[in-house]
Structures are given as C-alpha cells and as structure tokens.
Amino acid sequence: xxxxxxxxxxxxxxxxxxxxxxxxxxxxxxxxxxxxxxxxxxxxxxxxxxxxxxxxxxxxxxxxxxxxxxxxxxxxxxxxxxxxxxxxxxxxxxxxxxxxxxxxxxxxxxxxxxxxxxxxxxxxxxxxxxxxxxxxxxxxxxxxxxxxxxxxxxxxxxxxxxxxxxxxxxxxxxxxxxxxxxxxxxxxxxxxxxxxxxxxxxxxxxxxxxxxxxxxxxxxxxxxxxxxxxxxxxxxxxxxxxxxxxxxxxxxxxxxxxxxxxxxxxxxxxxxxxxxxxxxxxxxxxxxxxxxxxxx
Length: 296
Prior knowledge:
With 296 residues, the chain is of the alpha/beta class. The protein is built from nine helices and twelve strands.
C-alpha cells in the first residue's frame, strides 16, 4: 500500500510503545483488505499527553487509535462518548475518530473471553470458580469479562491487599450479587485449606511477574497435579512463562496472552473499518499467530 493524500491514519498510543506488536497485526489486516490506511506507533510522554489528545481529533485523516499503558484511564475524560463496557471497566483501549469527535471502547474483555473459547471450546466460563492473580490495570477487563459471563466465584489474590479490595469494590458496583473474595497473594495459597483446588477451574495471571527469566513463580501449582484446571497467563513474551512451564509439567492445560492480543486487535479493526470479522476469527488469527511468533 502506497501512502497518499487520502491515507487514513491509525496507531497505538502509549509510553513506551517501541516494543508493541500492534503495527504488525494491523499491517497484515490492512493489506488483507486492501485498505488505504497506515498504522503507526504513537509514543507520547506524560508531559505532552493532554496536548496530543486535544489536537488529534482535529486531524481529518486520523481515523482512530489503540491505547496502552499508561493512558487507558487518562484518555476517558477527553472523549465525546464512551461505550457501556468501557465505562464499566473504567478503561479505554480503542478510540474511533469520526467528524472530529472521539468515541471510546474497550475490546480487552472480548479478546480475553474469545481466546479461551477458541483454544478450549469445551471450557464454558459460566458457573466456573476462578482464581485471579493481580489487581492492576489488566485485571479490570479480565474480571469484568468473567463476571459478565456468569462465573460462580472470583477469588482475587494480590500482594497489596488494599488494592485487591479496591478492585472488588469497583466490581461490586456493577455485579452486586457476585461472589468476589480478596486474599493476600502467597506462594502456598493452593496448599492450604482455603485454597483447595476443588474451588478453581481457571487460574489467571494478570501481573507482570513472568516477563523476566529470573522472575519467581507466584503460586505453587503442585497441588493441581491430576486435575484439569486451566492456567492462563496474560504474558505472551516469553510464550511460556515460569508459571505456564510448571503448569504444563503437571499436565495442566495452559494458554498465554498472544491470542487475547490478536483478538482485541481484530475487534478494534472492526470498530474502525466496519469490517465484520467475528464469524471468521480462526481464518484471521492463524496467519497473525504465525507472524507474531516469529517476532517474539
């Protein structure tokens, strides 16, 4: 695709964004559908964020952008309209610009649930008991998606207990009757009576622990041996964190965050272009998996 005077601009806004895989995803989609768009990284410092946001909607050929850390919440006050899901999650990861107005969405919850459905179609989220590690930014969309899909119980394990309570209280505002418990994260949680494996169908790591090779595993999984608990780590680089390696060694089903990244991007692409991809997810996710794995 050659850039010309009619080229629409898309991008990913954050700080830093040098590591992002998003351009690789959207470049493939733009080429696949022969669209006159370009997708670029938009690294904007804290000092320049407000100026950038106030000016971007005035660029007539700017069609939209993704948002990553640390601006998913900060951007919300600058938007003209925000989707119901994004309001409930209290974070925006996708902005569409139309007629100089900005519309905010969150596609992370879609990406998370769909990644499980595609990889483990027999795993039905409804009625499941879930253990979630972490209460930071990524955990909000994950918890929202799980509760929206009617899990029976959510246990939040977090190193800082008060942050876990803060997340629980926020979730309770919209899921008043949901069973949400907060515990302080410790390595031996699954080995004590309160953490008995019979209460967990799914374990999710939403923290950044596991990005480095020397990161210690947050949870002792030996108690899960012989069970069928799905262990999901949102980290996708490395493709197998210490947590997932240990889970695999115990014969547990595992999943990393690469498909979630791809699927939330496919949903963003649909918002910007109107091209419906949800009924053909496998068709588009396979070449994207192959492309991104070569880059990791």
